[in-house]
Amino acid sequence: MTPVRHPDAPAPGELLGAHYGECFGCGGEQPHGLHLQARAGEGVSITAEFTVQPAHQGAPGLAHGGVLATALDETLGSLNWLLRTIAVTGRLETDFVRPVPVGTTLYLEAEVTAVAGRKIYSRATGRVGGPEGPVAVRAEALFIEVQVDHFVNHGRPEEIKAAMSDPDQIRRARAFEVNP
Ligand SMILES: CCCCCCCCCC(=O)SCCNC(=O)CCNC(=O)[C@H](O)C(C)(C)COP(=O)(O)OP(=O)(O)OC[C@H]1O[C@@H](n2cnc3c(N)ncnc32)[C@H](O)[C@@H]1OP(=O)(O)O
């Protein structure tokens, strides 16, 4: 089925902000994280940027592949907010096309390609040198829709409780990407 953008999805160009302050991908309160910033795009698409820091190295001076996969995963995960669906990554297949040096900004783009029942198919690219620059990484993913119980049943109680009691309703909903 063709993916359908939720009528209340943020407008194209709007910054999404972090879905959870402690998130390793996007959280502002996470000192070790990527601090990735995502914006709503047209249709069911997202753009995002992330600058590789010295803490993200694998080989000397180069980004760790797992960190780049995280940036792709986070960007793809942000698509859930445009669908207003709660979903987790089931499968993430990544191609590493070029090495990415520390200090490089990765320009990411992701889109949902199809939805079939609980399965959400998506793809993403990460470019260097600018949003039109050469592709350094790309991924195809399958996200699976879950109920909020997924987090309540599997997450550590202290963090779940803290996220649930956030006075900001949008942040509370977005911690689990729930339709508020
Ligand atoms: C969400 C809030 C945050 C959003 C932003 C964060 C961005 C980052 C996103 C993440 O990193 S999420 C964290 C990493 N992912 C996980 O921790 C998920 C761990 N895996 C699970 O909890 C379960 O395996 C999962 C919920 C994904 C699936 O278990 P279920 O028992 O609910 O589903 P089921 O096994 O019945 O499968 C449902 C369908 O999906 C298919 N499927 C499930 N896992 C698959 C897989 N890995 N590969 C291919 N297909 C898969 C499965 O074949 C089936 O297809 P059919 O409906 O056609 O029969």
Automatic annotation (TrEMBL):
A Gene Ontology cellular-component term: membrane
Gene Ontology biological-process annotations: fatty acid metabolic process
Localization per Swiss-Prot or TrEMBL: Cell projection, Ruffle membrane; Cytoplasm; Membrane
Swiss-Prot/TrEMBL catalytic activity: octanoyl-CoA + H2O = octanoate + CoA + H(+); (9Z)-octadecenoyl-CoA + H2O = (9Z)-octadecenoate + CoA + H(+); decanoyl-CoA + H2O = decanoate + CoA + H(+); tetradecanoyl-CoA + H2O = tetradecanoate + CoA + H(+)
Domain of life: Bacteria
PANTHER family linked: ACYL-COENZYME A THIOESTERASE THEM4 (PTHR12418)
Enzyme kind, highest EC tier: hydrolase
Protein's UniProt keywords contain Transcription regulation: no
Annotated protein name in UniProt: Acyl-coenzyme A thioesterase THEM4
Single GO MF annotation: hydrolase activity
EC number: 3.1.2.2
Protein family: Belongs to the THEM4/THEM5 thioesterase family.
Alphabetical keyword list: Apoptosis, Cell membrane, Cell projection, Cytoplasm, Fatty acid metabolism, Hydrolase, Lipid metabolism, Membrane, Transit peptide
InterPro entries assigned: HotDog_dom_sf, THEM4/THEM5_acyl-CoA_thioest, Thioestr_dom
Membrane topology summary: Peripheral membrane protein
Thioesterase domain residues: 61-126
